[in-house]
Design a protein that fits this description.
By secondary structure, this protein is an alpha/beta fold. 26% of the residues lie in helices and 31% in strands. It contains six helices and eleven strands. The protein has a seven-stranded mixed sheet with strand order 5-4-3-6-9-11-10. The relative contact order is 0.15.
Length: 235
């Protein structure tokens, strides 16, 4: 495994972000101000949230938003709130209770508290069985960790996924929550193992298609990010 794909390196990135003495209580992104709570993934320490805004057309580009969006792993709520501000009926889910509170705080800050639903959930567990969405999006914890890895903090869940267990569930379960003609989207990057993800997708009866890509400088590393569409394999 190359250094950028090392789960130990990503865990160190998590530790530094979580314990940074200069970690802000608010930050600016996408032309707006946002609240940041403890133990929540900090967009100021990674370009992934800004890239996700661009991938989804929520960066002011004028792209037409879907009528409904489910965001898995909502974190601070930047994506979910931006979608709600664009007129999208939005549900934001996270396994981290602080992230759910953070998203609700930012929804109220930007006046979309009545248009955005927050759910404390491990992926789709807490959703109603009949919940359906035009778009489902996850900016995932794309770094592969060993199968026997045990999280030491909920913050680490934003960075690594043991044996891609969460990714396997997402690939399997997400399409069951789509409206007819809807799309399952996954933000991935080369810090992750795309070959392994593709293998798991095939095992789940899914295919992956790259919709958009962008390469950014992260420290001294040039990292390519992808927006993937999860599609059923044709029989």
């Amino acid at each position: 495994m190359s250094d950028v794909r090392s789960h130990l390196r990503s865990l160190e990135r998590s530790r530094r972000s979580r314990t940074d003495p200069d970690r802000p209580r608010t930050f600016s992104l996408g032309g707006r101000e946002w609240d940041l709570l403890d133990d929540v993934f900090a967009p100021v320490h990674s370009p992934s949230t800004e890239i996700a805004l661009e991938f989804l057309g929520l960066d002011g580009s004028g792209a037409q938003p879907p009528s409904s969006l489910l965001e898995i792993g909502c974190g601070t709520g930047v994506i979910a709130v931006s979608a709600a501000l664009a007129g999208c009926r939005t549900t934001a889910s996270d396994i981290n209770e602080n992230a759910v509170r953070n998203t609700r705080l930012n929804a109220d800050r930007h006046g979309v508290g009545d248009r955005l639903t927050t759910v404390h959930s491990d992926l789709f567990d807490a959703l109603d069985d009949g919940a359906r969405f035009d778009r489902i999006f996850w900016s995932s914890n794309y770094v592969l960790a060993p199968e026997d890895f045990v999280y030491r903090s909920v913050h680490e869940r934003s960075y690594v996924d043991p044996a891609y267990g969460a990714h396997r569930r997402y690939l399997t379960e997400a399409p069951h929550h789509l409206t007819e003609g809807g799309a399952v989207l996954l933000h991935f990057c080369e810090r992750g193992d795309l070959a392994r993800l593709s293998q798991i997708a095939e095992e789940c009866g899914r295919g992956l298609r790259v919709l958009r890509s962008r390469t950014v400088l992260e420290g001294e590393d040039r990292i390519e990010h992808h927006l993937l569409e999860v599609r059923p394999l044709r029989g």
